[in-house]
Amino acid sequence: MRPAIKKVLLGTVVVVAIAAAAIAILVRGDTAKLPEQASVGPNPTLPEPTRSLIPTVSIATARGWPAGATPKPAAGLSVKAYAGGFDHPRWLYVLPNGDVLVAETNAPARAERGIKGWIAGLLQDRAGAGVPSANRITLLRDADHDGIAELKTPFITGLNSPFGMVLVGQDLYVANTDAVVRFRYVDGATRIDTPGEKVVDLPSGPINHHWTKNLIASPDGAYLYATVGSNSNVGENGLDNEERRAAILRIDPAARQVSIFASGLRNPNGMAWQPETGVLWTVVNERDELGSDLVPDYLTSVKDGAFYGWPFSYWGQHVDDRVAPPKPDMVAKAIAPDYALGNHTASLGLAFAQGTLLPETLRNGAFIGQHGSWNRKPRSGYKVIFVPFAAGKPSGQPVDVLTGFLSDDDAALGRPVGVAIDRTGALLVADDVGNVIWRVTPAQAAATNR
């Protein structure tokens, strides 16, 4: 064997060995002492933080679904594939004519930041999130109303890690990772080839720790609201890199102006208007590395001008002493969210129920896609839940709607992300490991779009 080749092979073996050792070390860590139910609801249990040099890491290896397999629906429900064969489908938007838009997307290329960033990249590969972004929005159409999309076609290509989508009149807005862009939409169109027009920039840059940017319009269409996650776990990359991040931004597209609507939200994703009250709600991923029993992700109403604590505190005024310098004045302003969704569940998707297709118990409340934990033992999330509402607020314990995303040997067959309600009232779920869009309907009813 030539010396040069031998050197390359030896180097490869060393890198693989180091990677394996790093993952082996990382998967150690604390185990939750509290039951999952303790971190759910309006008053979660918040124990003392558990700190260690090596954080707990327990992430399911991405495998995908065997042929013919599906998630497990709750009693009284049925699930089947609405469409498959995607490249990392993350987010959904239902057009007024019933067509469904799917953002096939992943993180943009970015420089690794030291050993921690390198290991994070290894874990992302293990979770199935290490592939390049397709940078595409795909259109699905079920013209024969049988609950399966027979048309699947590229709708907009050449985007930059797109995520949120919203139609206002004939303007289709797309949130790339670095900007909101606008396209002219014609009802029934199956492709847009004209370049998008940039409306406003969004925080991005070389770190871009939380890259997803969701988008929703005010009911009158005058404003857009964009979610922007933090550029770190708890400000360790410098608070100067957190400008207009960990926030929901309000955008005036006519004036091309951006302001902060609410802040201190570490990584907000799904947004929706509560049907009874017209109040904006969001789901937020909270901070990591305080142990398996902290900190719960949450569902909350969003108040104009409110501050929700990140990075200085969590769940109201529980101080995070890792943040320097501390800011007691900001902690004093922090308000607690409405409803805890469990520790490290990675709750991303949010959609309020609509219509009367689904059982009565699932007609007033919020569906939430939980992508699944990496910083908790045992694992949490990896399912779709329903949080019942009464009088415009969460009421009672969440209900599992779609489970079975983890195999018996603890691999990820799928991971739910975005959720949406189609024109008939059925639930759609984007699965970015299974590369499927699932459709949930009543078990006794034909899956129909009529």
Notes on the protein architecture:
The chain has 450 residues and is mainly beta. It has one domain (55-442): TolB, C-terminal domain (Neuraminidase, 6 Propeller). 10% of the residues lie in helices and 33% in strands. It has helices at 3-26, 114-126, 328-333, and strands at 40-41, 72-73, 77-84, 89-94, 100-104, 136-141, 151-156, 165-168, 171-175, 179-184, 197-201, 215-217, 224-228, 247-252, 257-263, 267-273, 280-285, 296-301, 313-314, 318-319, 339-343, 347-352, 365-370, 383-390, 393-394, 399-403, 416-421, 427-431, 436-442. The strands form 7 sheets. Strands 2, 22, 23, 24, 25 and 26 form a 6-stranded antiparallel sheet that branches. A 5-stranded antiparallel sheet has the order 1-21-18-17-16, with no helix packed on it. Strands 3-29-28-27 form a 4-stranded antiparallel sheet, with no helix packed on it. It is globular and about 55 Å long. The N and C termini lie far apart (67 Å). 48% of the residues are buried.
Q: In terms of topology, how is this protein built?
A:
Blueprint: H1 3-26, E1 40-41, E2 72-73, E3 77-84, E4 89-94, E5 100-104, H2 114-126, E6 136-141, E7 151-156, E8 165-168, E9 171-175, E10 179-184, E11 197-201, E12 215-217, E13 224-228, E14 247-252, E15 257-263, E16 267-273, E17 280-285, E18 296-301, E19 313-314, E20 318-319, H3 328-333, E21 339-343, E22 347-352, E23 365-370, E24 383-390, E25 393-394, E26 399-403, E27 416-421, E28 427-431, E29 436-442
Antiparallel strand pairs: 1-21, 2-26, 3-29, 4-5, 5-6, 6-7, 8-9, 9-10, 10-11, 12-13, 13-14, 14-15, 16-17, 17-18, 18-21, 19-20, 22-23, 23-24, 24-25, 24-26, 27-28, 28-29
